[in-house]
């Protein structure tokens, strides 16, 4: 998919990567173990990197976490972002430790003198900053509501309020002549996320980090994130993405890549499995076969397309389009390679035969 030129942004360097402009949309994730647990953190980063994570974010709520950063940074080969919420001193420590980007939340760090100190440190160390506005931290807290004056802010929509807050905060960086900036504005639901990012894209030319905050479990979060990120990316909005899911962060990376490859914004990193949804025409245990194929494909890194189909209506057509395919019938399956019927085997031998043909296909490809 061609990117919409109207939404191209300036470029920002994040370690050895550049985001924005016409650079590839980068996939990032965040560890969910304490940063000061160095071995656990490195182990998780290794798993994420192998899954395709290109930028990793680490929480640094304590001084012990920032103290652990040098040991982590020197042992990995992807850029590191330090996630800072309440304590600007953690940002300074992380910058001095060598992180490549700082994430600041304007809803939590409101002392502009502290923000300027962070900007000065980033300038001195060539460190980027992401200004990240979140729905949960942008609303006035209930305990302070009685002190709020009755202004038009009370009648603003959430997206309007988020853009206003982001604009106010970005002005600090502009006044300090700091351009190494990335913006984000995450909401809990897809509709608000789409609305606010469209507004941010129209108001700024900084690279945008896309995401739906607190999107939920793997099942619900994947759907909400795919809806929001897919809509924005299809419009040319967004330069780096993080899918936020409750659970193993590897699932975040896998989901992000599926979104990007589905839109043809990044090449597929491994096999693509196509499987029919089953219906009354299905005469084999297709679901079991598809799950077996899916599990075994995780061991393959070559980007081929594999189809597992359950009847003769759509099966041959999908088989013709796939690199290797299995088309089931009553107690048997036809195996195709590059659209050609190769062999008919009993259903119980179908998956094994399919993978034999997958290996033949891969072996025939130019290196």
What brief labels describe this structure?
367 residues, alpha/beta, TIM Barrel, Sulfite Reductase Hemoprotein, domain 1, 2 domains, eight-stranded parallel beta sheet, five-stranded mixed beta sheet, elongated, disordered N terminus
What distance separates the N and C termini?
Answer: 26 Å
Gyration radius (Cα, Å) is 24 Å
Mean pLDDT: 89
Beta-strand portion reads 15-25%
| Shape call | elongated
CATH class group of the largest domain: Alpha Beta
CATH fold title of the largest domain: TIM Barrel
Residue ranges: pLDDT <50 for 5 or more in a row?
Answer: 1-6, 141-152
Task: Give the structural class.
Answer: alpha/beta
The largest pleated sheet is described as:
8 strands, parallel
What is the total tally of β strands?
15
Number of helices: 12
Overall number of domains: 2
What's the architecture of the largest domain in CATH terms?
Alpha-Beta Barrel
Task: Write a concise synopsis of the structure shown.
This protein is α/β, with parallel strands linked by helices. The chain is built from twelve helices and 15 strands.
